[in-house]
Amino acid sequence: MGTAAKPAGIGAALRRREDPRLLTGQGCYSEDFSLPGQAHAAVLRSPHAHARIVAIDSAEAGVMPGVLAVLTGADYIADGLQPMAHAPAAQSPPDIRLQNTDGTPVAAPRQYPLAVDRARFVGEPVAFVVAETVAAARDAAERVRVDYQPLPAVTEAVPATAPDATRLYDERTSNLVIDALVGDRKETAAAFARAAHTIRLNTWVQRVTGAPMEPRAALAEYDPASGRYTLYAGHGGVGRPRRDLAQMLGIPETQVRVISRDVGGNFGPRNYTYPEFALVAWTARRLGRPVKWVSDRGESFLSDYQARDLTVSAELALDAEGNFLALRADKLGNLGAYAASLVPLTKGTELMSSLYHIPVVAARARAVLSNTPPTAPYRSAGRPEVMFVIERLIDLAAREHGFDRVELRRRNLVPAAAMPYANPFGMTYDSGDYRSVLDAALTLADWDGFAARKAESERCGRRRGIGIGGYIESQSGAPQERAVVTVLPEGAVEIVIGTMSSGQGHETSFAQLAGEWLGVPEDCVRLVTGDTDRVEFGAGSHSGRSLRLAATTIHDASQQIIAKGRQIASHLLEAAEADLVFAEGRFVVAGTDRAVDLFAVAAAAKAGSALPEALCGPLDGTGDVVSRVSSFPHGFHVAEIEIDRETGKVELARYSAVDDVGRAVNPLILHGQTHGGIAQGAGHALWEQCVYDPGSGQLASGSLMDYVLPRAADLPFFATGISEVPSTSHPLGFRGGGEGGITPALGVIVNAIVDAVADLGVSHIEMPATPERVWRAMQKAKG
Question: DSSP state, 541?
Answer without folding.
Answer: S
